[in-house]
Amino acid sequence: MWSKLPVKLAAFITKVMCYSEYSRFQRSLVRPEEAQSELLRKFIRDLACTEYGKHYGVCGDEDYSAFASKLPIHSYADMEPWVTQQLVTQQSIITPHSIIHVEPTSGSSGSMKNIPYTQPLLRSFSNMLRVWVYDLLHHRLKLETGRIFISVSPPTDKGGFTDDRAYLSGLMRTIFSLSLVMPPKSDAPNFLHNLALTLLREEKLEVISIWSPSYLLALLEYIFINRDTLVEGLSDSQRNVLLTSPINWKGVWPHLKMLSCWDNALAEPLVGQLQKIFPHVWIQGKGLLATEAPITVPLATSRGCLPLLGEVFLEFEAVGGEIKRIHELQDGQHYQLIITQSAGLTRYRMHDLVEVQGFYKNTPCLVFIGRSQICDMVGEKLNEIFVRQALLPLFPTVKFLLVPWQNDGQGYVLLVDDPISDGLTERAEASLCQAHHYALARHIGQLAPLRVQHIPALSLQLRSFHQQRGMKIGDIKDTVLITNLVQAEQLLTYCSNNQIVEAA
Fold first, then answer.
1. What is the spatial distance between Cα 201 and Cα 252, in angstroms, rounded to a whole number?
2. What is the average pLDDT score of the chain?
3. Cβ neighbours of residue 391 closer than 8 Å, sequence gap 6 or more
4. pLDDT at residue 269 above 90?
């Protein structure tokens, strides 16, 4: 039997380090308007020192009304020239703080958005983690083994963080590093094998923290398919557990007690699958975290996720287009999210939709319900503009349409109005892999390989399909990406009944 004392000591030290941030966060929930106003004043002072702020006449002493009247709401495409200028010149273009890292993510203006990171933004992520960790250790999680797995990704040529330790520093990072179960460094082809073998050897695994539940489901499927090979690196007792049919996952990780992952929108049915596989494990949904900023954090004592009022300034666009602040939100209503954060993204449209589901103290609980005009089954975040730019060189005169599918797995099928030439599927897949998160999802098996299908007279087929759904011919818009999953399933069923010619 291992000693629990080091684990308890590490948990105690961690709580001490996290307490002040947790306490500050709890106080902000009582007075959300005041907390947000204080943060905005700091952001406006920074903005007045930048070329972006001067361009819009920011002096540094504006209140919210003046701030909102001077500065437009922008998407990444609007801000990209400003971001690029600061990256190139290293001058105070959008932020007076030095950019210390650039994190890639799929974006609305092309294959990738380059999100600048400053020390204050990294601190915001770190503060979010401190709030979350303290809340878990204080209210719910009693660690015994202290062995934790957090999401890691294979290295890519696009750069970016490979695991969540990048958001920590100092003693916190050291303590977490001692607790983490980490696979050896490997390239993408060997990544899943090494990750699976590392986790299978860790019988004391106690906590799993990932993003999309499909990440873990893909890993479990890989283990099941390749278990005859994987058992060669295990002990006799581990082999016996792994070779049972079906696999006794509680026997594989008998100490596993918590799983943290997305549980809203498209992730909800996948979480249901994980709960059936691990009925003895508590699954906690993650808050809304974007590459651009930490936005909400889950609390064990609340029914939902709470906004990080001291880290990111939030505005909300109502259905009618009216912009509201955090203290003006109404229970049960949907809003599009607009953020201002500490690395220069100001009044930045996230294309995320949230719903208010009750209040904790005086602050609304925000639940992510989906993205506008983006297809995002597992975090790949494909959008129409990128798909058109990526695939148009392959089909300059041919109609094509990218459609997501979720039957017996998840992936995309590319419908084309032309016979399929040799190597077309591989070239199309390579083009889509220019999107950073799509490439990651393919590397780790969250998305199946791209399929290509030939449909003669595709445009006519699509028009007939939409008319069948009740659309007027004049309302049918040309698109290269279906983002609505229900519509996608209906379209694929319709095409299947109209003699799709499958790719070889």
1. 9
2. 88
3. 400, 402, 414, 428, 431, 432, 480
4. no
